[in-house]
Amino acid sequence: VAWVRRVVVTTPVERPADSMGVRRVRKAYEQVADQLHELIVGGQLARGERLPNENTLAHEFGVSRATVREALRQLAAQKLIHTAKGAGGGSYVTMPTADHISEFLRTSLNLLTEAQDVSLEELLEARAALEVPAAGLAAKRHRAEDIVRLREAIPAKPLELSTLDQFAFNERFHSVVIEACGNVLLTVAAQPVFSVLQTNLARSSLGRRFHRAINDQHRAITAAIEAGDARAAEREMASHLEFLRPFYEKAWRHAVTAVERR
């Protein structure tokens, strides 16, 4: 395997307490993972290409199979490879999609939120900072099919739907707005924030007026996007998010109280 550089495993140097610090040497599996990472990102290993088996990789890198296995586990966690079992099994090169990255961020953000390391105010600020300009960009860049999808995400008779279905429509609407802005990074950043807030809000009790108002506001945002009016789209989205603020605050207080009672 010509592209492999053998890993050099060294031992940290003993030093007097008052001497200059020596840089910590990375573990062997981290070095293997780093090299494979470079090859995947650099294109030497193509998407869908099968990696050599663990024995071959261990021989080429000059490390143990256990070291290779840990390196592959790290790459799999980063969505750079996936492992298949069976006759055609092995490790195959993949690349993380926007959805993969967004889902990873959503899970991490959920953990931070549950640990109360991220406040509601921070989430609301982040959402406004992302979704308001996204609505403006959607007004400038949307395609005809985006408008169709936005309209399909606004139920004609929301009050006849279950709460779960109502929130499914709501999530779809905001996802389409973000996707219609045509910026992958905005999509990756905005979706996790929205999902965490949406999950907390869905756990609360909301009345008929809430769902009716949500759909009216979604129609106003859609109209501004369809008209290509970026300022109006941003204004409507900002107004919509401000309308939601007290409902999020109520849901957040309820969630915190529930945790404290455990």
Shape: elongated
How do the helices and strands follow one another from N- to C-terminus? Answer: HHHEEHHHHHHH
Percent of residues in helices comes to 55-70%
Query: Taking Cα atoms only, what radius of gyration do you get, to the nearest Å?
Result: 24 Å
> Overall pLDDT, averaged?
86
- Name the assembly state: single chain
Query: What's the total helix number?
Result: 10
Report on the architecture of this protein.
With about 260 residues, this protein is mostly helical. It is about 65% helix and about 5% strand. The chain is built from ten helices and two strands, in the order αααββααααααα. Strands 1-2 form a two-stranded antiparallel sheet. Strand 1 (about 80-85) and strand 2 form a beta hairpin. Helix 5 (about 120-140) runs parallel beside helix 9, helix 6 packs antiparallel against helix 7 and helix 8 crosses helix 10 (about 230-260). The radius of gyration is 24 Å and the shape is elongated. About 25% of the residues are buried.
